[in-house]
Amino acid sequence: MERRIQLRDELLLQHPYLLFLLVVIGFLVMDPFDLSPVGGLDFRPVRNHVAPYNQVMESWPRDNRSRLGQGNLEFVDEIFGPESLEFDRWGRGPYTGLADGRIVRWMGKDVGWETFALVTHNWTEKLCVKGKDSTTSKQWKVEQQCGRPLGLRFDKQTGNLYIADSYYGLLVVRPEGGIATPLSTEVEGKPILFANDLDIHRNGSIFFTDTSKRYNRVNHFFILLEGDSSGRLLRYDPPTGTTHVVLEGLAFPNGVQLSKDHNFLLYTETTNCRLMKYWLEGPKSGSIELVANLPGFPDNVRLNEKGEFWVAIDCCRTKIQETLIQNPWMRNIYFRLPIPMRYLARMVGMKMYTVISLFNEKGEILDVLEDRKGKVMKLVSEVRELNGKLWIGTVAHNHIATINYP
Question: Where are the transmembrane segments (predicted)?
Answer without folding.
Answer: 12-30
